[in-house]
Specification:
Elements (H helix, E strand, L loop, with lengths): L13 H12 L2 H22 L2 E14 L2 H4 L3 E5 L4 E9 H5 L6 E6 L8 E8 L9 E4 L2 E21 L6 E8 L4 E7 H4 L2 E9 L7 E6 L1 E4 L7 H5 L2 E4 L9 E18 L2 E2 L6 E9 L2 E6 L1 H4 L5 E2 L4 E2 L7 E6 L1 H5 L4 E3 L6 E10 L2 E7 L4 E3 L5 E6 L3 E8 L12 E5 L7 E6 L1 E3 L4 E3 L4 E8 L10
Parallel strand pairs: 1-4, 7-10, 14-18, 15-19, 24-27
Antiparallel strand pairs: 1-3, 2-7, 3-6, 4-5, 5-7, 7-9, 8-14, 9-13, 10-12, 11-14, 14-17, 16-22, 17-21, 20-22, 23-26, 25-31, 26-30, 27-29, 28-31
Length: 452
């Protein structure tokens, strides 16, 4: 049986086709105008919602590559211009809002160094929507200055931060590879260097430690060199070995604190005839020292090396004494932190037969003390009464002295120096008037807090 083949054909009706073509041809210019107007409206709407604008990205650091092309010829370079740039990007607002400074890389390739000592800058952006023609770099090149490489020696200062455990202080710090470093680089940059510092933290330590520290370099104005400037330098130890990552090793030795060491003062010379030194006191009476265990074990008291002269003295006097010379004579010992090197020394000089007794304020006979005033006394504990005995061998005690003070003047607020009336046994006379400083303040009235 023969198979029947059917051919299907689709034909557009001629009348309908002519009608459609005729419809398109009618008012063709008006229809094209409508399409154009629609496109313009779309373009305006697109620009209003996502307009093209510009944005600045500041302080973009310049990365320097192929430095060997300069250093191989025994030269060094110093950046004369700024080591960062400003980037201007012109793009759609949505693109700009997605950008940050970290999206840009600015490179100065030293192989492209020109005869004018400038290096063109190239910039790349991680966002593919931003093209090079939309980026402007200011400045567009980096200005450098070629110099011969120089090398100089600098002392390293070790600085500590923090505080060791109680009872300890940092005694010594020593850089393992030597106290100095050799620094090579552009001569102009070396001339700016003011100090090389290694900083370590000793907070909370209680034993000797070996620590590492990255060197920091400051210029003569006290400003730290930038990363770019540091990259221009080669730092070596005192033996000429290049320091890895510019780090040094430091040994820290802790010293112990010896608290409340008595201060001993000696006098020299002789007071005036008929006078004598009866007492020598210091303020403070003790000091705190720091040192090695061996050095501190030898110290029971701190004897001041320079005696206080009392030659020809006829009265009590006070003078300041600096302990610096005394401490410097001791090996592996120094004053503890917070201890003043200057102390006050009082030498009591009395006429032969003079005696000083201390009368406690509680033993004073007080007259006319106002009830509505708060009184503060100075001194707050006792008054000193100096008397002269007709018989030098006769002594007097505090119990034999009667002291009376009249506080009637303290009825009003103020500061008063009030004479103390002193009565002595026969054979004794008062050497000098005794006074007491009194501050009078009105007593605060307490409000009655009882609820009705």
């Amino acid at each position: 049986m023969k198979q029947m083949k059917h051919k299907i054909s689709l034909k557009f009706p001629k009348k309908l086709w002519k009608k459609l073509v005729g419809s398109l041809r009618r008012n063709l210019s008006l229809k094209l105008l409508s399409v154009g107007v629609a496109f313009v409206i779309w373009l305006v709407v697109a620009n209003v919602s996502n307009p093209t604008t510009s944005k600045l990205f500041r302080d973009i650091r310049i990365e320097i590559v192929n430095e060997d092309s300069v250093t191989e010829i025994d030269k060094a370079f110093d950046i004369v211009s700024e080591d960062s740039v400003v980037i201007k990007v012109t793009e759609r607002r949505r693109v700009l809002e997605s950008l940050s400074a970290s999206d840009f890389t600015v490179i100065a390739d030293m192989e492209n160094l020109t005869e004018m000592n400038t290096v063109p800058l190239t910039v790349t952006c991680t966002n593919s929507a931003v093209t090079l023609d939309e980026i402007t770099v200011v400045p567009s090149s980096m200005k450098v200055e070629l110099e011969q490489i120089q090398e100089s020696e600098f002392a390293v200062t070790v600085e500590t931060t923090g505080t060791p455990q109680s009872g300890y202080e940092v005694g010594t710090t020593e850089i393992v590879d030597g106290k100095t470093v050799q620094i090579a680089g552009p001569e102009s940059l070396l001339e700016r260097i003011g100090q090389v510092t290694a900083t370590i933290s000793v907070n909370g330590i209680s034993t000797d430690q070996r620590m590492t520290s990255t060197l920091t370099i400051t210029d003569k104005n006290g400003d730290e060199l930038s990363e770019t400037q540091m990259s221009r330098l080669q730092i070596k130890n005192s033996s000429g070995v290049l320091l890895s990552d510019n780090t040094v090793t430091i040994d820290v030795e802790l010293w112990e604190v010896l608290y409340e060491v008595p201060v001993m003062i000696e006098t020299s010379g002789t007071p005036a005839q008929g006078y004598e030194v009866t007492e020598v006191t210091t303020v403070p009476t003790t000091v705190n020292l720091v040192g090695t265990t061996e050095a501190l074990s030898l110290i029971e008291a701190l004897s001041v090396s320079t005696p206080v002269s009392v030659a020809g003295a006829t009265e009590t006097f006070t003078q300041e004494v600096d302990l610096t010379e005394t401490i410097s004579a001791l090996e592996d010992v120094r004053l503890a932190q917070g201890t003043d090197s200057v102390i006050s020394v009082t030498v009591v000089v009395e006429q032969n037969g003079d005696q000083t007794v201390q009368i406690a304020l509680s033993e004073l006979t007080v007259l006319n003390r106002p009830d509505n005033m708060v009184l503060t006394f100075s001194p707050a504990d006792a008054i000193s009464v100096t008397v002269h005995a007709d018989d030098e061998e006769r002594t007097i005690t505090a119990g034999e002295v009667t002291a009376t003070i009249d506080l009637s003047v303290c009825s009003e607020a103020g500061d008063y120096e009030i004479a103390v009336d002193v009565e002595l046994p026969d054979g004794f006379t008062l050497v000098s008037e005794v006074t007491l400083m009194v501050n009078a303040a009105e007593q605060e009235q307490q409000e009655d807090s009882t609820e009705e």
